[in-house]
Batch of 3 targets.
Target 1
Amino acid sequence: MYARQLTATLLLLLTVSCAARHGGAVVDTRAKPVGVGGTISGTVRAVGGEPLSGRTVTVIDTKSGATFRVSTSASGGYTIQVPAATYRLEVELRPGEAVAKQPAQTNLNVGDLDAQLDFVLTAR
């Protein structure tokens, strides 16, 4: 019992001593908080400018393959918050449709707002 208390006390003293020398909080800067990132937004429209509601936009992390999905609103707009990473975007196509304009790959950093990542769809 005494040995356990002594070990715990020594560990506490070592931790306090290291923190006192550091002068600030001890933080692992290599670790990235899960869920912290930025926002991606845009619209999905037909070639004539008509907004396309209820379309699924898929945001795919190019490194990990993680996917995030959001549906477009009545105005054809979408907004999604995702962790910091590089993403490619895809949109749901219906029979007879093709993508006339698609956003380029985007590199999203913490706090970024990558807006106007718009899709334009056309009938084949």
Target 2
Amino acid sequence: MTDVIKTPRLDIKAAALAGLVAGLVFMMMEMALVAATTGSPWGPPRMIAAIVLGEGVLPPPATFDLTVVMAAMAVHFALSIILAVVWAVFAGRLAGWKALLLGAIFGLGVYVVSFYGMTAFFPWFAMARNWIGVVSHLVFGLVLAWAYLRFRRRERIDGLAG
């Protein structure tokens, strides 16, 4: 008898959890890098919150505002989950380095779409075209792939392989 591990094409729960983890790592990293280079971590959340609250919440000043942060987190985590499901649909059966590589490429693709394509709708995104955005999105994709690999369910099938 041989044990065979079968992974489903899509595990929604794993994708949602992976999206939350990757989104959290992304946001913490983005805010920390911006704080280390420009002095205020509140710029990125304000840019995200402006998607739903309008351009009036954009800095300056880039200060803390609970309403802005809550709106930013709601939008950011919803998008992170949606992106995770999209990634899982196309790459959910991959494992190991192939999954991580595709995750990194996916993260860079999200950067390009967000900061070059979506500027037609959200022109303020253009000011975040920098190395911080590239690195943060690359890490988002890597963490997304890694977390999905850890969370996805595996079904054990006992029987003869062949």
Target 3
Amino acid sequence: MVTDYEPPLSEKPPGMESWKAGVKPLAPGVSGFAYEVNGEIWIPLILAEKKGAGDVGRFLDRLSARCVIVDVTSKRLEAMLVRRGWVKRMGTDHDTWRRQT
């Protein structure tokens, strides 16, 4: 499995009042936003265009080790990350999910 995909970056983290403006295609069937923080790619929003089509799973499987999934609130996404070996780390400002190295 190739795990070197890095999604297109947004200019900056979108503000809470205009988060929809920052949403863009991240991969086939997946939209959201991603931005760079200290050499990592933070992904705080992942949206499936067709729920249950497998696009989010394929997206997660391909992500590079630089990618960090941030502040997961969906139990479904959390289960997908656990099945794929991602590890949750509790932070002071954000909870993060990273590939197990």
